[in-house]
Amino acid sequence: MQKNTEPILIETAWEVCNQVGGIYTVIRSKVPAMVEKWGNRYFGIGPYMPNMVSSEFDPSEDYNNPVGQAVLKMREYGFEVHYGVWLVTGRPKIVLFNPQSVMHKLGEIKYFLWENFKISAPEGSTLIDQVLTFSHQVTTFLRILNNVVNGSVPIVAHFHEWMASLPIAYCRKEQMKISTVFTTHATQLGRYLAMGDENFYDNMSHYNWEDEAKRFGLDCPARIERMSAHGAHVFTTVSEVTGEECRHFLGKSPDVITPNGLNIERFIALHEFQNLHQKFKEKIHQFVMGHFFNAYKFDLEKTVYFFTSGRFEYKNKGFDLTIEALARLNWMMRLENIDTTVVMFFITKQPYHTINPNVLQSRAMMEEIRATCEAITKQVGEKMFYEVAAGTKPKLPPLNDFVDDYWKLRLRRTLQSWKTNSLPIVVTHNLVNDRRDEILNALRKTQLVNNAHDKVKVVYHPDFISVTNPLFGMEYGQFVRGCHLGIFPSYYEPWGYTPLECIASGVPTITSDLAGFGDYSMHHVEDHNSYGINVIRRRYNSFDDSANQLATAMLNFVKLNRRDRIAQRNKVESISMQYDWANKMRSYYDTAHLLAMQRI
Questions:
Q1: Helices in 81-166 by DSSP H: which ranges?
Q2: pTM exceeds 0.85 for this model
Q3: Protein fold of 8-262+585-599
Q4: Among 306, 591, 317, 338, which Cα is nearest to 455's?
Q5: CATH numeric code, 277-356+425-576
């Protein structure tokens, strides 16, 4: 075995090689920066999910390190262990355990969970059962690894969220020589309570965490989370906003704040991301024409694209505030007679039956019109060339004479079939619960239903955008680049990757002071507003005041001319490196890992 006395870092998360939530983005995007610092002494541990790993995991036979030796030992004891390379930038070694492979031990695992820590695991929870069996495997692995190195190599084990953190308690109970770090990205209770309490932040200190955990059926996860926060050598969370939750619901303040970052890709020339914006904006133009122009048209050169996205949490994600502010923006733009159109996209995930057939038909008809126009253009071009080349006078001939009656008739009939007297559809899909959908009901209430006279148009797309999407035909990141402004005034958002993804793409964004990203930007980015990061005040602010502030911020953006918007995209791109893992954000993790080694 390779001799090395330098410390090794093992990062354990339910999302390692398992794309099920936002923490996947945290771990995956951070890998290159971690490998840059730790080299081949960095490892990941996650659950083996066959449907997830096929495209991201490559088995390895390189066992010439302490982790590899521990893997071989576990296999000797009969465990199913998958060891290999995570096929992401940085290509770290990872160890994956199949939770199902030790499900026959679940009763024993639950018994010792109660016997050792007085935590009762409920019956019938697939997730909790998988978490417990996975934790049993990780604990066994760390126990073996601790014996393999026998104190010769410092070990730092970093655990993300309650799904991965139970081994911390066993590490401390058995006094393993392992420095432990626990990061919670959102408290178990916070997300649930915030959805139902309009004054959540004011009322936090009045909640009894045990009563609320039982009320929401979160007793087991909440107790594991609380025990991990107290048991780890170092406890961290992603923002000061979430740190306040931790003090109330976990009874512990974070030792270190570890904000999230991205692996920012800088372009050599500033014009490159401007070109990409133009390229993908043209694709959005095509969608907008197919969606709106069969009912009425507006000037695409005087149209700006706003969007919001994220999982469907109507209040937590600020969808309610966004719709109210859009209604006020619509009124203000009409009052000032502003000659600009705003198209607002809501991109989220809701149950639906199918894409609305009328939406698909309209897009297909527009493509037919395009094909017909291209055929006419080709015919006119050829005939005009012969006419001009053979002519004696430098005069443009009547082009209409060059179009065959067949193409004239075809174009006329296609246009007549495409046009409609109905308003453009707000939602692109047939929802399962159309009448109960909170976004749709709010749009109806505020009369944002795509009237021709409205300055603000709305497209509600209840599915995530991908390259296979028949309506857009591009990746989500490309869609972001094609838009002008991202709007994310969250009420509850421990961090918030969506606004960070905006600035990484050179797109200005609006966030809130209750989002970890917004709070961090307020305190660490000087003059953030001038760089295209607008932070709406929601803490200690009424809903009405926040809606006015958001509407005003959007109005100010609408009033920018094209040159100003280009300048702001340049400034947004220039500030993005302040959120890069390797450039800055990894340093917070470095502090946590060093502190954990000192404390052991």
A1: 106-117, 126-149, 162-165
A2: yes
A3: Rossmann fold (3.40.50)
A4: 338
A5: 3.40.50.2000
